[in-house]
Structures are given as structure tokens and as C-alpha cells.
């Protein structure tokens, strides 16, 4: 065998021998390292001079005892820290995985480490790396100086007192949503997960206050975001925590829990990036929130990535700790009903004065004491941030002695244990809020235990020093306002399934399963709703009539639907306007679902009856977005038309519909309608001939004008010849009359407050249902014929609606039907009613009638009317306007206030309008206000002729202002009547064509007092006789 062969045979043996040697050496070195770390260092550590628990494991030290993240009756919170504090004193040491830790419970030592000598005690790398993982970068919770100091300097202005005051409305708004949600489940024994609703509450608050973003979590929007947050903020496990801290790339391991965290973080980052991008692309706003400051700070301007880290930081720190603390407060109050009663009384006293302000918070001393005592027993974060000593340091203690903390030592402060230290707290495990009331016996007893020292370094729920919680005052104010708002209305009891032992999720401490119920007492509710709340309601700043009923308030007076000689129109509202002014309030039985949508709460609610011009301008124009039409009115209109149309939509949906329909009402189209008006006015006049030739005939004018206007809107808007003037399609008008019935009190309250009321087998409701089916069938037929017919050059409203929009959206036949019914109703009912009122007014004022006829004859002498002729009918137009002033076709407009607002008034000081308030414009009363109209109850058309004596007199009463916000027959603003010019032109043509041929006189059976029919006002019984004019007889 040659040398080469022998060498080849020897190589494997040599290789394996070398490998074995390497493994052996590595094993020996690793063993030596562990012996050094786990045996020699602990044995020789100078920290052995401090007392402390013996390690339970030679490898893990005391880690097993310290990794308890859940407690129960056998192991109550906050053991083991409290046990060791009591056993080993205020400075003891323990060991975790070979790392030495000193736990401090001494106030002088805490002051030294966290304030005096803070710079040599940075936060430990483990906690900083975990928080960097959570937020995606270096933020307030993970940075050290000088970066931390710079970040605090940039963010501090957002938490100044002047800024905090502006958050009060946000806190109260969302607290009210939570309160109403709890009211909706009161007395049902339905368990509520308080942690869930508190988390959603605080999430929405921090979103709006810090970033101007409405997550809508309280209305169960952003559910995926909330779930992602919970997934990221998981309950820690020792293996996962250890891996994330010490194993590079551990978060990328293919473990289910890590994949879940990664997915959650990606979703949250995406949401936060979207928030930042919208901020960057939006125009500058005067409302400056935290994100605005971050993106536009002086000096260093943050990148979007840096801003994302801060947003994530405040989403975590700004809601998790607050929501958990509120959960513990509700738990403590449920366990201590005597304390709950005292807190509730204090909260009712303060919140009953009206909307909470920043200054009101000082009047909640006992509520604040309850918050502090709760945080003493159950701090939201169990410990202060762990620090690592950078060089040997001598630390003083309160007893005059000192200890040495060596370089590399971890320093830990258990807030939960310190807050129950019997050395400094009387009855430390008892819930006694009085200890935080300065001057109380308990306060003095605790102070004596502390040797007269303040509580600053013993009670540290928000940490202390330069790295203390930046949002301390924000969080405290949020909790104060939430509690004052909620506890003034409801109380809580623990459900049988509740488990209020503590557990840690991520970083914070919360109850394991806080299931609660909301008890209710009918007597207490009635006392609050009918006595306490009315007494302290913010709208008490406005004058108003006393309620005539404890239950209905002023409801009985406001549900008058007909008037007579003893109670002339506009009735009580006209009297109240003159007595209480242009802005007063009334009380009616109603619901508060307009305040926060998912539920209803029956109670006496306040209505602002508004006629003030500045107030009307503010609500209808300046801040119209905050005042949508009342949901009950919108629901009524939607029920009538079978869907969401112009009379029932709000916001972008309404804007889109207006944009689609506006072209049909342009001047170019209106000019083309004059011939349609003229043709049907001629038919109307020809039909009158048969009545005029019969001296005994009595005409129901309303029926005739209804058929006329119905035919006109059919042709002009939908190209459909209903031909009701020829006595065809009477079922359509009969259906309209059945649907537009005079409401009874039962119908009003039933439709408003009883779900499914319209489906009850009541005769009135059955007639309405049958009528609606008739109208739907007829309109569906009109639409079907349109869709089947070839394209025509003659374009009407329905043609426009059925065309695809510029964005490609094409409305369905059902949507088109809603719009058709909207215009059939609004396009004929209001016009026909106004025509009847004009004829009634002219019959009562023959001198005015003569002047109108003269003007019409002069204009009609040109031949058939065209658009340009209408401008010559000045006096007729004034007559129409004066008729609408005295007898508006629609008498009321009811809006609701979406967010708290301050309403400017011309005649009074501004008034606060709380969210949910109803605003009512009564046109009949407003347009007869003697403060702004000369001889306000008289029929004087001259007041609408510019330059006339009456015109100038009225203008002087208005201090030179135009009549825009004093005379609103077609409303004003973005939701004004889209067909106002159409209606006016139709009335001008019909009246000019008719009055030149016939004169109308009231019959002795006529009753022209108004009555309310569904939505509009019309004369009770307009019986008239008709005769040809002399010139027509001669012809």
C-alpha cells in the first residue's frame, strides 16, 4: 500500500477526531461560561450584601416567580413583589438568567435613580427593544437623551393646559356615546364587556385628540384595527419574551403567535401611514393636533416614518393605560356601593350644570380621589421602566443609610408593590379614596407614616422624572370627564361571570374578565329624566314656556294640526315667539337616538325654536353640515317615497343627488317648461268654463289645483301624461290623499318611537300601505316605459336620472322610483296648496285682486306667455310671496345638532347647543314676527315691491338686511328647494292665465283656516264659486 493510500485511509479518522475535539472544547468553554455566570458571579457579587430571595433555579434564578402574568385568590395581585418587599425591605436583590437585579421600594432611592442621577440609569435595552418592535422605531418609550429630550420638547406643547382645555369636548362627546350605549342595556341583565367598550372609547378619543382621525370604534367600525391591536399587545410568555429580547431575528421565526403579531403590525402600520398621508396631502388647518405638530415642528421636521413611530406610541400609551384604569375604577365602585353613591352624587352635581368645562374638573375632588386610589391598588402599568446602571453608584435610602448599585445592574421598581407597602400606607390593601383628600383623617395618617413627606416618590402611577408620562394630565382629565358623564346617569354591577383578578396583557394590568350589568330603577330614571336633568339642562340659558305636562312637556301644545277663530294660525308658536323671543326652548317627549345612533332612549328632550336670522344663517348655511334633518322626518319622507331621496339624504349622498338633478332646473330647461305650464293652465281654464256657467256650482279648489299641478309635474319631469284633469288616473290622486293623511297623536308617536309601527293592522296604516302600493305600481310603469322607449331628443328629469353618470354609476329603477315619488310629491303638493291660498287671499282682498288682474291682462295681451313675460308680473309675484309669508305650505323644518356647537344670535348672546338637540324653524311664526315685519298679520303684497313704502319699512325693522333669513318659503342653503324657480314660474303662468278669465269668490261654507295634512298646510275647506270676468262675458 502506497503512502497516498495510507494517508487517504487515515483522513476520516483524523477529521472526526478534530471535530470531536472542537465539540469538546466548545462544551468545556460553554460549561465554564455558565459556571462563571450562574455560580461564580452570583457567589462573589457584591450585591449579596443586600437581602433577597434565594434563586428557585440555578439556571433561571428567580425568573419563574417573576414571570407570573396572572393572579387569583390563591395568589393575589401583586405577589410575589409585595411579598418580597414586606420580607426583604425597600431594597433587595434577585437574579434572572444570571443578571443581577435590585428592586427598589424606597422613596429616596427612587428619587435618586429616576430624577437626581437619571442620566446614569437609562432604560434597559430589553424593554426598549420590545417597545421598538411594537412601534416600529425609536419613540418616546424607547429613546434616551439627547433624542428623548428633543422628542419631549417637540411634543410638550400639545399637552399644555391651553391645549388640554380644547380636548374636553372630545372627551365628553365620546363619554356620552358610551353612556347612551349603557343606558340601552340598563335593566336587561345583559353582561357587557367593559374592557371592550372602554378600549373603543379611549381609542376613539386618542384618535381624534392626537391625530384628528375618527376611528369610529365605539360604533364598531375599525374592528380589524382593534383586533390587530389586541394581537400585537399579546399576553407575554416567558419563551416569547426571552426570544424577542435576546435572539436576533427571533420575530421572523415561523411560529403562529409571531406570524399573528407580524400581520397585526403590518395592518396597524398601514392604517397609521394612511393617516399620515392624509395629513400631508390635506390643506393646512387652524385646528392643530399632535400629528400636525410632529409633521411641522420647528427645527427638525419629522419624516413620515418617524411620525409613524410616535403615532403608534400614542395609540398604545394614550388609550391602553386609560381604558384599563377606567375598567378598574368601575370594578372598585361595583365592589364598594357606598363609594359609588358618593361619586355619583358629586358627578351629577357637576354635570347637571351643563356641558363640562375644564374648570369643572376642579369640582370633582372625590371622583379624582377614587381614580388615584384605584391606580394605587391596580396601577395600569405594574412597574416603572427597568433601568440599567452605567457605573457604580451610591444610592441614599430614606432611613439615612445607603446602598451601592454596581455597573450593569438592573434596577426595578414595582409600582404595584410600593403602592401597598404598609410602611407608608394605612390599611394598604383596602379601597379608601379618602386617603387622597387633603386634610382627611386617612390623608393625615398616611402622611405621618411617610414622616411628613409628600406622596410623590411613593405613589408613581404615571412614573416620575424627565421620562414620566407626557400625557398624565390628558389621561386624568379624560377619566374625570368619562366618569362624571357616565356615573351621573348609570351605575354598574359585576355580573356572575366576572373575574376581576388581575392579568397582564403586553405591558398593562387589567381585570381578567370584566363582565358587568347596568341596573336601572324606574323611579330613579324618572326623577333624573323629568326633574334633575331639566333643572340643569344647558338650554335653560334660553327662555321658554313652562311644560304643561310632567310627562309630555309641551308636546300637547305642539301637536295642534288645525287652527280656527279661537286659535288662529300660527297658534301657540306665534304667541311664544312674541313672548320669549326669536330663540326659545320647549320640552317634548322624544328619543335621543339623534345624539348617538345605535339605540333609542325615551325621555323629555329639548327643542330650540329658532327664528333668529343670525342663528338661521349659521345652521342653514355656515355650519349646515352639523345640522342634518331630524332622523324622524327623514324616516317619514323615506317611508313615503320608498327610499333615500332628496328629502331624506344627508352629506355626500345628498350632494351627489343634487348634482345629478340640478341640470333639469337650469334656466335653459325652465324656459322650455313655460309652454307646458301654459297648455295645462289652458286645460284648467277650459274646465272652469262649465262651472262658471253654473251659478249654483261650488268648487273644491284644492281638488282642481291638485290635478293641475299633478299633470304639470308628470309631463315636465317625467314625460308622462297623467291627464288627471280629464278625470283619468284618479286612483293615483286617491292614493296620494290616502298616503298624505292628517296625522293623529298616536300616529306621530307610533311612527317615531315604535319599531315596526307602520306594519300594525290599523285601518289608517292599512290604507297608507295600499296607497303606497298603488303609487309604486304606477311609477314603476312610468320607469319601465322610459327604459323600453327609444332615445328621445326631448330630455326630462327621468331621462337624466336613468343615464349613467360621468363616473359610470347608473341608478337602479328602485332609486329612480324614489326620486320620481319625491318630485311627484314635492312638485305638485306644495304648488297646488299655494295656488289655493293665493285664490283665497285674492277673494278676501278684492282691491289686491283688481290690481293683479290688471297686471295679468296687460302682460297676457302679448299673446301666449313666454319666459321673458314672467319678469313683468311683479305685483302677481309679490302676491305669491305675501301669500307664502302668511301661509307657508310647509310650516316646520326640524334639524338635529350632530356635535356641540355655539349658536350666534342677532338679538341675544350666543347660546350653547349640545349635541342631540333638536332645532325647529316654524315658518308661520317666523314670517309673522312683528319685530321684522310691519303689520305682520295683514295681507300687504306691496312689502315685496322694492322701493315701496312698506318694503322700506320692513327693511328698516331688519336694520337694512335683506329678507333672506326672515322669509324662507323654499328654505335656504345647500338643502333649499331644488324646484323653487320651477314652482314660482308655474304659479305665475297658471294665475295669469286663469285670473284674466275668471273671478273666484269664497262660498259661505268655506273655512280657510289652515290644517296640517301629512307635511303641508292647506285651507280646511276652500269652497269657492267661479264666474267669468266681465270682459270674458262680453267676448
From TrEMBL:
InterPro entries: Cyt_P450, Cyt_P450_CS, Cyt_P450_E_grp-I, Cyt_P450_sf, Cytochrome_P450_monoxygenase. Pfam families: p450. PANTHER family: CYTOCHROME P450 (PTHR24305), CYTOCHROME P450 12A4, MITOCHONDRIAL-RELATED (PTHR24305:SF166). It comes from the Eukaryota. Keywords: Heme, Iron, Membrane, Metal-binding, Transmembrane, Transmembrane helix. This is Cytochrome P450. Heme binds at residue 469. Belongs to the cytochrome P450 family. GO terms for molecular function: heme binding; iron ion binding; monooxygenase activity; oxidoreductase activity, acting on paired donors, with incorporation or reduction of molecular oxygen. Its cofactor is heme. The chain crosses the membrane at residues 21-44.
Amino acid at each position: 500500500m502506497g503512502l497516498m493510500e495510507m494517508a487517504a485511509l487515515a483522513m476520516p479518522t483524523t477529521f472526526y477526531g478534530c471535530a470531536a475535539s472542537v465539540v469538546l472544547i466548545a462544551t468545556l468553554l460553554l460549561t465554564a461560561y455558565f459556571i462563571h455566570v450562574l455560580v461564580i458571579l452570583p457567589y462573589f457579587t457584591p450585591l449579596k450584601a443586600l437581602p433577597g430571595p434565594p434563586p428557585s433555579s440555578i439556571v433561571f434564578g428567580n425568573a419563574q416567580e417573576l414571570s407570573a402574568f396572572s393572579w387569583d385568590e390563591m395568589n393575589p395581585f401583586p405577589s410575589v413583589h409585595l411579598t418580597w418587599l414586606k420580607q426583604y425591605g425597600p431594597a433587595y436583590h434577585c437574579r434572572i438568567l444570571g443578571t443581577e437585579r435590585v428592586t427598589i421600594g424606597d422613596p429616596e432611592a427612587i428619587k435618586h435613580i429616576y430624577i437626581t442621577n437619571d442620566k446614569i440609569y437609562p432604560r434597559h435595552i430589553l424593554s426598549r427593544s420590545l417597545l421598538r418592535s411594537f412601534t416600529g422605531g425609536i419613540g418616546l418609550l424607547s429613546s434616551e437623551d439627547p433624542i428623548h429630550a428633543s422628542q419631549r420638547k417637540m411634543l410638550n406643547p400639545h399637552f399644555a393646559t391651553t391645549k388640554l382645555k380644547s380636548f374636553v369636548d372630545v372627551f365628553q362627546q365620546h363619554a356620552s356615546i358610551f353612556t347612551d350605549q349603557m343606558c340601552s342595556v340598563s335593566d336587561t341583565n345583559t353582561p357587557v364587556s367593559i374592557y371592550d367598550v372602554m378600549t373603543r372609547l379611549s381609542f376613539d378619543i386618542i384618535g381624534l385628540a392626537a391625530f384628528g382621525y375618527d376611528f369610529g370604534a365605539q360604533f364598531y367600525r375599525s374592528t380589524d384595527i382593534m383586533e390587530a391591536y389586541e394581537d400585537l399587545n399579546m399576553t407575554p410568555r416567558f419563551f416569547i419574551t426571552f426570544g424577542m429580547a435576546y435572539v436576533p431575528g427571533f420575530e421572523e421565526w415561523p411560529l403562529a403567535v409571531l406570524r399573528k403579531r407580524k400581520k397585526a403590525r403590518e395592518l396597524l402600520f398601514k392604517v397609521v401611514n394612511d393617516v399620515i398621508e392624509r395629513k400631508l396631502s390635506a390643506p393646512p388647518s387652524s385646528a392643530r393636533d399632535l400629528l400636525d405638530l410632529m409633521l411641522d415642528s420647528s427645527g427638525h421636521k419629522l419624516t413620515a416614518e418617524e411620525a409613524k413611530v410616535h403615532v403608534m406610541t400614542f395609540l398604545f400609551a394614550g388609550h391602553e393605560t386609560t381604558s384599563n384604569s377606567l375598567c378598574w375604577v368601575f370594578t372598585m365602585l361595583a365592589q364598594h356601593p357606598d363609594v359609588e353613591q358618593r361619586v355619583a352624587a358629586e358627578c351629577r352635581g357637576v354635570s347637571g350644570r351643563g356641558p363640562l368645562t375644564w374648570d369643572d374638573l376642579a369640582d370633582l375632588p372625590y371622583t379624582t380621589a377614587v381614580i388615584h386610589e384605584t391606580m394605587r391598588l391596580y396601577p395600569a402599568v405594574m412597574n416603572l421602566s427597568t433601568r440599567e446602571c452605567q457605573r457604580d453608584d451610591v444610592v441614599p435610602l430614606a432611613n439615612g443609610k445607603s446602598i451601592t448599585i454596581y455597573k450593569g445592574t438592573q434596577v426595578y421598581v414595582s409600582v404595584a408593590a410600593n403602592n401597598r407597602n404598609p410602611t407608608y400606607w394605612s390599611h394598604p390593601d383596602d379601597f379608601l379614596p379618602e386617603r387622597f383628600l387633603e386634610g382627611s383623617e386617612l390623608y393625615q395618617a398616611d402622611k405621618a407614616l411617610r414622616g411628613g413627606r409628600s406622596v410623590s416618590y411613593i405613589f408613581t402611577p404615571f412614573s416620575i422624572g424627565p421620562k414620566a408620562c407626557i400625557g398624565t394630565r390628558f389621561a386624568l382629565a379624560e377619566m374625570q370627564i368619562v366618569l362624571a358623564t357616565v356615573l351621573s346617569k348609570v351605575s354598574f354591577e359585576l355580573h356572575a361571570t366576572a373575574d376581576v383578578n388581575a392579568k397582564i396583557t403586553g405591558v398593562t394590568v387589567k381585570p381578567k374578565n370584566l363582565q358587568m350589568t347596568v341596573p336601572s330603577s324606574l323611579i330613579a330614571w324618572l326623577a333624573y329624566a323629568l326633574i334633575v336633568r331639566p333643572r340643569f339642562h344647558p338650554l335653560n340659558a334660553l327662555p321658554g314656556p313652562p311644560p304643561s305636562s310632567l310627562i309630555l312637556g309641551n308636546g300637547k301644545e305642539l301637536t295642534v294640526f288645525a287652527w280656527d277663530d279661537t286659535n288662529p294660525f300660527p297658534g301657540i308658536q306665534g304667541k311664544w315667539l312674541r313672548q320669549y323671543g326669536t330663540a326659545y326652548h320647549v320640552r317634548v317627549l322624544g328619543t335621543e337616538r339623534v345624539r348617538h345612533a345605535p339605540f333609542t332612549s325615551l325621555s323629555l328632550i329639548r327643542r330650540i325654536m329658532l327664528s333668529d336670522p343670525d342663528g338661521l344663517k349659521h345652521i342653514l348655511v355656515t355650519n349646515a353640515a352639523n345640522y342634518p334633518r331630524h332622523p324622524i322626518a327623514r324616516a317619514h319622507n323615506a317611508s313615503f317615497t320608498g327610499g333615500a331621496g332628496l328629502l331624506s339624504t344627508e352629506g355626500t349622498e345628498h350632494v351627489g343627488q343634487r348634482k345629478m338633478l340640478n341640470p333639469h332646473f337650469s334656466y335653459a330647461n325652465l324656459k322650455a317648461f313655460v309652454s307646458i305650464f301654459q297648455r295645462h293652465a289652458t286645460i284648467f281654464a277650459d274646465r272652469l268654463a262649465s262651472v262658471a256657467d253654473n251659478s249654483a256650482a261650488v268648487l273644491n279648489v284644492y281638488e282642481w289645483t291638485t290635478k293641475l299641478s299633478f299633470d304639470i309635474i308628470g309631463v315636465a319631469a317625467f314625460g308622462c301624461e297623467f291627464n288627471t284633469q280629464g278625470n283619468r288616473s284618479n286612483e293615483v290622486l286617491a292614493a296620494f290623499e290616502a298616503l298624505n293623511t292628517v296625522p293623529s297623536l298616536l300616529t306621530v308617536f307610533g311612527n317615531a318611537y315604535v319599531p315596526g309601527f307602520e306594519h300594525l293592522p290599523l285601518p289608517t296604516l292599512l290604507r297608507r300601505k295600499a296607497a303606497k302600493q298603488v303609487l309604486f305600481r304606477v311609477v314603476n310603469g312610468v320607469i319601465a316605459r322610459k327604459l323600453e322607449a327609444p332615445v328621445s331628443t326631448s330630455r326630462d328629469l327621468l331621462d337624466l336620472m336613468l343615464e349613467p353618470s360621468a363616473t359610470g354609476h347608473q341608478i337602479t329603477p328602485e332609486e329612480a322610483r324614489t326620486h320620481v315619488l319625491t318630485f311627484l310629491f314635492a312638485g305638485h303638493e306644495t304648488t297646488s296648496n299655494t295656488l289655493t291660498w293665493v285664490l283665497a287671499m285674492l277673494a278676501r282682498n278684492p282691491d289686491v285682486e283688481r290690481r293683479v288682474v290688471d297686471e295679468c291682462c296687460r302682460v297676457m295681451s302679448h299673446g301666449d306667455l313666454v319666459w321673458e313675460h314672467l319678469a313683468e308680473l311683479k305685483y302677481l309675484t309679490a302676491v305669491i310671496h305675501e301669500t307664502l309669508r302668511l301661509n307657508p305650505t310647509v310650516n316646520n323644518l326640524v334639524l338635529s345638532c350632530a356635535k356641540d356647537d355655539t349658536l350666534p344670535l342677532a338679538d341675544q348672546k350666543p347660546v350653547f347647543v349640545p349635541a342631540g338637540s333638536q332645532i325647529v324653524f316654524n315658518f308661520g311664526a317666523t314670517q309673522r314676527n312683528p319685530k321684522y315685519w310691519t303689520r305682520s298679520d295683514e295681507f300687504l303684497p306691496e312689502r315685496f315691491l322694492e322701493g315701496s313704502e312698506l318694503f322700506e319699512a320692513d327693511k328698516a325693522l331688519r336694520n337694512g338686511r335683506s329678507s333672506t333669513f326672515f322669509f324662507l318659503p323654499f328654505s335656504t342653503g345647500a338643502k333649499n328647494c331644488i324646484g323653487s324657480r320651477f314652482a314660482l314660474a308655474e304659479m305665475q303662468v297658471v294665475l295669469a292665465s286663469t285670473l284674466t278669465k275668471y273671478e273666484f269668490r269664497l262660498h259661505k261654507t268655506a273655512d280657510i283656516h289652515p290644517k296640517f295634512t301629512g307635511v303641508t298646510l292647506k285651507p280646511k275647506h276652500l269652497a269657492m264659486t267661479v264666474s267669468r270676468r266681465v270682459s270674458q262675458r262680453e267676448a
